[in-house]
Every structure is written in C-alpha cells, then in structure tokens.
From TrEMBL:
Residues 5-151, 156-284 form the DUF8155 domain. It comes from Natronorubrum bangense JCM 10635. This is Peptidase M23.
Amino acid sequence: MAVMLPEALLARYKRFSLYNSPYPAHDEGCAIDLYPGTLRDGRTTAAPSPVSGTVRETRAVRAPSKPYAPEHDYLILLECDGPTELEGLIARILHVDPTVEAGQHVEQGASLGTLVRAGFFAPWVDNHLHVGVRRPDQNLHRASGSLPLEVGVDVRPLAWDGTGTVVATGETYAVLDAPTHPAPGETFAGVRADNGGVLDGGLPHYDGGGVHGATQDGIVSLNGERLGVADGRTITWDDIVVTANGEAITGLSLFCARDADFGAKLICPDRSFDLGERVRVRIRPTDSR
C-alpha cells in the first residue's frame, strides 16, 4: 500500500526529497523530507504541520553522536484527519522540538514547534521535517517500517549540462545558478536524467537515490554518464565520483523544488568555491583515469 501525498500538502514547502538521506527509513522512498526554507534560507526554524490531526504522543529520541549537534531529537505522532488521503493513518514527524502536546488538535500548516539540527544531520543538510506514515496497528516507534509514499504532483524535469555560476556558499556546499526554475512557486522541478525522469538523492555520497516520473527498470544516466541502475523508481548508484572543475567533490544534492533559488547544490566540505566562479560538473567511474 502506497500513500499518496497530495499537492495541497507538498505545496506548503519549498522543497522535498524521498531519497536524499543515508537512513534506512528512506529506503524505497518510505519517508519524505519536507524543507520549509529555500537553498539560500536553509536554516529556517519554522515547522508547519504537513497534516491535520490529533497529537498522539511526543517524545525525545536518541540521535547519532556528532560533534556539532545534540544527541537527541524529537518524535511527534499525529493521528491524521486530513488531507483525505491520510485520514486514519499516523504521521511520524522528526526534527521538530514540539510546542504541541498529546491530545491537542493541530490544523494543517499550523506550527508544530521549532526545527532542530540533531545528529541525524550531515553538516550540509538544510533544516527539514522528516515524515513517515504508518497504519495505527504498526509499530509507531521503530525507525523503519513506514509505508511507501507517492507524490501527487508532476515534477518538471530540467535539462542541465553540468555548468553554472556559484551564487551561494556555505562551509560544506556551494549552489549554482543552473538549472533555472522556469516557473517558481507554480510547480516542483528537478534535474532531468537522460531517461526523462527527475533525479532525487545524494549522488553518490548516499548509497542510492530515486527518479520521479520514470519508473522503468534499467540504467540511469546524466549527460551520457551512467549513474546507476533503477529498480522501479529506486536507483542504486554505481561506483562513481563527481568532479567540479576537474577536482573530486563529495557529491550532488538532488531534490524537487518550487522556489526561485533553485540550482544545483554541490556538496564540497573539502573544496571551496568563490561567488561568481564558473563551474563545470562531471561524473565518471571511480576507477577511470
């Protein structure tokens, strides 16, 4: 049973990803990360609820130990009564320090609390709500076990030749001005794979990713360079490396976005880029010369 997330739910957020995570909860697209902020406002702390319903429970949970983050996170369990597609199901929401409590009814879009950056976050990851959906008879506290998710929007594929100019930087990433979103605020878009689908995931710094809008099995490539093999919409990356101006970087962060700040996000904690620098991104097998 796959749960459809309707456009009215997704449109409250600037970006979403089913696959851009190293954690098993996202395997096969069984969880979604919802980003309220843009690429240039990635540390926003607003936490609008994706659903309406009654809070069943809130609790602190242990997170992986990281020197830059607290070792605890928070879990919010919501009994959904809206949108219609989620009625009667339980939404599991992480990364929010809750201001809501058990028994309280929450409207869709209302604040759940403040977004937090616990040890689940790599340093380049922007603030977001992690959301999984389960039936009431399932174990609601295990990290894995959520139902597969489908997105009820058509994601527009954007051709990208691998080039762009740096328009924003952080300690561990750089954002390019390409590809350009053709209709900010009106539709979600993402980087187009050669087969016409939209790529989703951490390439290749997480084990795999996904492709929206092209669920056939087979080889997935970008600009003629093989990325991996798809089983349905889920991709296992090949042993590849991403380069920027000829030097290896950690990878590309791939997602679906609807804001004007959309552009390729380079993950590069060991390599710095200057604002205005022209960059050419390429993908090659790790063992190539």
